[in-house]
């Protein structure tokens, strides 16, 4: 007989362990937090989950988080410039920099054959549909400069170029505040290759 | 105007960030998992939280998790030997070793002046009440060998000894499978001090 098994606790631990990057031990700690906390806390948590799932939608145009059919950014900024990113949090990161005034397109993933993510699994077709309307002047590919991000950017570039749209890739080089001596070879190579005239 | 703020998403992120060891970025990733998952997943998660909060109780005798008034361990094993631990997961750890046949007492914390945890904030009075019934022969202090665990063990020892009960502390020394050369000074000192005759 297992003297320490409690079904409802196991179920909650199991739910927590489905979260990204959470293992059995961490999930157990989260579950312990819930059962030792107040009833109001647990109810607030459960309600927040249901409310977010119910109210948070995705913009039918760009795929970013939205609480309406179309997000505020798409409503205000039009289709002239579209910045393509992997996830909604990338939109937040760029918006925080207060430097970009165009629209976005959120792919919700990058092409990754090892994880069985094919081009059809991310929102590339939706991007092409937007570009094909003829209002777009430039598509900025702002996926991360890792293997999947690079491959996705190259793939999208090949699909967008035939529409006569300017396709650009975010610059790669040394990050602000870092030391040159600690930069990796790939970053240094790109920083030198893409040097700009002053 | 903040173009990326969505109240219900912020609320869920905030709830996740209350979990132990979870910061704003990790909480945001968890919230993203919820809102991009299926409705059934979100509902299952919310239900698991409420069910665990409702059904998981604490044994009125030992303080361990229980789905009834008294846990199965207390019902079966009596009060002769009581092993005192910090948290329910410590009970699970010891039970997994299949080596201990006595009961437990879960303190739900250790004395920690820096975090404002005083002796009255953890279940020490409940332990003394059990011991004072006169059925207990031995109290094993199995709090962790860190500053708080040691202080708590010493404090409890001073309270339990007057009842004429044998008070023991779990052994400290080298962990199985570790290399002696990597052991810290305190562990080595204790391993030598508490050496046993073969």
Supply the number of helical segments of chain A. 8
Q: Measured on Cα atoms, how large is the radius of gyration of chain A?
A: 22 Å
**Beta strands of chain A, count:** 6
Q: Largest interface by residue count?
A: A-B, 58 and 58 residues
CATH class of the largest domain in chain A equals Alpha Beta
Oligomer: homodimer
Determine the mean pLDDT of chain A: 90
Low-confidence stretches of chain A are none
Largest sheet of chain A: 4 strands, parallel
Which CATH architecture of the largest domain in chain A? Answer: 3-Layer(aba) Sandwich
In order across it, which strands form the biggest sheet of chain A? 4-3-5-6
The N- and C-terminal alpha carbons of chain A lie at a distance of 75 Å
Number of domains of chain A: 2
Categorize the overall geometry of chain A: globular
Task: Please render the helix and strand layout as text.
The structure is a homodimer of 198-residue chains.
Chain A: H1 7-17, H2 24-36, H3 39-55, E1 57-58, E2 65-66, H4 72-77, E3 81-85, H5 88-96, E4 103-106, H6 124-131, E5 138-141, H7 147-160, E6 166-169, H8 185-193
Parallel strand pairs in A: 3-4, 3-5, 5-6
Antiparallel strand pairs in A: 1-2
Would you give an account of this structure?
- The structure is a homodimer.
- The first copy, chain A, has about 200 residues and is α/β, with parallel strands linked by helices.
- The first copy, chain A, folds into 2 domains: about 50 residues, Helicase, Ruva Protein, domain 3 (Orthogonal Bundle), CATH 1.10.8; about 100 residues, 3-Layer(aba) Sandwich (Dna Topoisomerase Vi A Subunit, Chain: A, domain 2), CATH 3.40.1360.
- Chain A contains 8 helices and 6 strands; from the N terminus they run H-H-H-E-E-H-E-H-E-H-E-H-E-H.
- Chain A has a 4-stranded parallel β-sheet with strand order 4-3-5-6. Chain A has a two-stranded antiparallel ribbon with strand order 1-2.
- Chain A starts with 6 loop residues before the first helix and ends in a 5-residue tail after the last helix.
- The mean pLDDT of chain A is about 90.
- At the A-B interface, helix 1, helix 2, helix 3, strand 2 and helix 4 of A face helix 1, helix 2, helix 3, strand 2 and helix 4 of B.
């Amino acid at each position: 007989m297992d003297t320490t098994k409690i079904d409802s606790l196991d179920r909650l631990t199991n739910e927590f362990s489905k979260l990204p990057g959470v293992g059995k031990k961490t999930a157990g700690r989260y579950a312990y937090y819930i059962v030792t906390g107040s009833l109001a806390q647990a109810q607030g948590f459960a309600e927040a989950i249901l409310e977010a799932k119910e109210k948070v939608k995705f913009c039918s145009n760009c795929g970013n988080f939205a609480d309406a059919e179309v997000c505020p950014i798409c409503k205000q900024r039009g289709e002239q410039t579209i910045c393509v990113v992997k996830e909604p949090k990338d939109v937040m990161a760029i918006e925080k920099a207060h430097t970009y005034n165009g629209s976005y397109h959120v792919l919700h993933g990058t092409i990754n054959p090892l994880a069985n993510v094919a081009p059809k699994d991310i929102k590339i077709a939706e991007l092409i549909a937007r570009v094909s309307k003829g209002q777009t002047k430039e598509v900025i590919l702002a996926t991360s400069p890792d293997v999947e991000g690079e491959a996705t950017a190259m793939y999208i570039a090949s699909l967008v170029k035939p529409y006569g749209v300017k396709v650009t890739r975010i610059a790669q080089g040394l990050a602000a505040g870092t030391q040159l001596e600690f930069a990796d070879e790939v970053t240094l190579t790109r920083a030198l290759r893409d040097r700009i005239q002053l």
